Amino acid sequence: MSSNLTSNVISRVFRKLFQQAIDSRLTEELNAVLISYKIRPSEKELFPNEAAMKAHLDGYSDGVLNEYIIAKSKRWLETLQISDFVFPAHVYSLLWVIQLVQGRLGRPLRVLDFGGGAPSVPVMLHQLGMTQYLDSYRIIESPAFVGKIPAEWNAMCQYSDTYDGDSCDLLILSGVLPYLGSDLVRSVYRSIEKAPPQFIYFGRTSFLRDDYPEEEVYTVQESRFRDHGAQVDVGMVGIENNMAHYVKRHFKWSEIGKVLDPLGYRKVLELADNSGLENIKGLGLYSKNALWERAE
Q1: Alpha-carbon distance 165 to 41, whole Å?
Q2: What does the pLDDT average to over 61-68?
Q3: Per-residue pLDDT for 249 more than 90?
């Protein structure tokens, strides 16, 4: 073998091995960064009340954001084949809770899903052949959202922009209470007291540790429009990178306990689901996803 040919072969082999070494090191470094990111508490400014953070908020109630979320959800539901998807843990938890409650009551359920968004759960129940589990499925959303939903969604469930003590068998509060204004949260509590549902399910909600010095604290939640709703392309490229900044309230479980305990609710089960759990420095948040039943 000539010296030039030998040199070229060695050079190629060296470059290949060198690149493999670089790729391996980069992979290790990337994994280390991801692990560190997941474990390291995020640095977020803490606010004592809603008024203190008003200047930092924009985008959440924007009509354009609602249109974007609805467009993505509509496209996703049109193509949804439940057998082709591996859904997030909180979706399976919710389907299981509905099945459990229906089994305990032994009749079709009147479900009220506060902040439910798109009719994903009714569509999935239909595809699973479980529509007999439902007497009605009602989604409570903001007036801005309800005013823009496609007409065909009303064939899947009922939509309303108010909740004022309406009777139901199962009230779903999944990933919603932390994002409501204090006045609206209090109105939800009053509605529960006015007409207590047989079952209440809390999901995707994290709570302050009991020894935190304040009863509540606020942070700004930031996300790009494209992170809202189903992960499908609807051609709205011009707004996908727009940012929404909105309130997230962190509070203690005792706030809810003050509503549930006098009404005779007891915990039926607790689910191991960390969906929605954040790691914010100093807050010590923990998840508490549970189904509660009112004693007869």
Answers
A1: 39
A2: 81
A3: yes
For a pLDDT cut of 90, what percent of the chain falls above it?
44
Q: Measured between alpha carbons, how far is 46 from 39 in angstroms, rounded to an integer? A: 20
Are the CB atoms for 162 and 140 separated by under 8 Å?
A: yes
Locate 192 and state its tokens: 């529960």
Report the DSSP pairing between strands 134-140 and 199-203.
Answer: unpaired
The C-alpha angle 181, 182, 185, rounded to 5 degrees, equals: 90
State the amino acid at position 187 in one-letter form: S
The rounded radius of gyration (Å) of the Cα atoms in the chain is 24
For 71, the token pair is 């467009």
The reply to whether the predicted model has a pTM over 0.85 is no
What are the tens digits of pLDDT across the range 214-239?
999 999 888 888 888 777 888 888 88
CA 36 – CA 295 distance, rounded (Å)? 45
HEC string for the chain: CCHHHHHHHHHHHHHHHHHHHHHHHHHHHHHHHHHHHHHCCECCCCECCCHHHHHHCEECCCHHHHHHHHHHHHHHHHHCCHHHCCCCHHHHHHHHHHHHHHHHHCCCEEEEEECCCCCHHHHHHHHCCCHHHEEEEEEECCHHHHCCCCHHHHHCCEEECCCCCCCCCEEEEECCHHHCCHHHHHHHHHHHHHCCCCEEEEECCEECCCCCCCCEEEEEEEEEHHHCCCCCCCCCHHHCCCEEEEEEEEECHHHHHHHHHHHCEEEEEEECCCCCCCCECCCCCEECEEEEEECC
- Closest to 169 in 3D by CA, of 239, 112, 233: 112
